[in-house]
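Continuing the batch. This is chain 6 of the set; chains 1 through 5 are on the previous pages. Same settings as before, nothing changed between runs. Recording input and output for traceability.
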Amino acid sequence: MRVDPTAPRPVRYGSQPARPGADLKTAAVIAELQRRDREVRAHEAAHAAAGGGLVRGGPSFRYVRGPDGRPYAVAGEVQIDTSPARDPETTIAKMETVRRAALAPARPSSQDLAVAARAAQEEARARVELLQHPGDGRAGARIDVTA
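Output for chain 6:
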């Protein structure tokens, strides 16, 4: 039997010969992992950039190992301070930042939308508090200047 030395050889994984098309399937899996890795990193970077000083540390990622042995990010998160501030004005500004950070990625996740909704609720509570106590010396209190 003659062997053509220019013919492609099947790739072996372990002791089993590769199935026909395995190289194409592996390449497709790697391409999809690379795409997902880029998407996850961009998504979390958008949160971190918009969150500014409220971000606690940097993005963290969950990885899977691809068929090429490399790790690929498939999920991530950015920790952000969502606690109310000491006064309503600061809380309003803080929750606006939280909401912007949650909605910063091009395609916010359901978790992102939930965080934005909670921030909007907290912001609304702070606005109500501000309206209920307009004359307590806080910024924005109304002063009667009629004489």
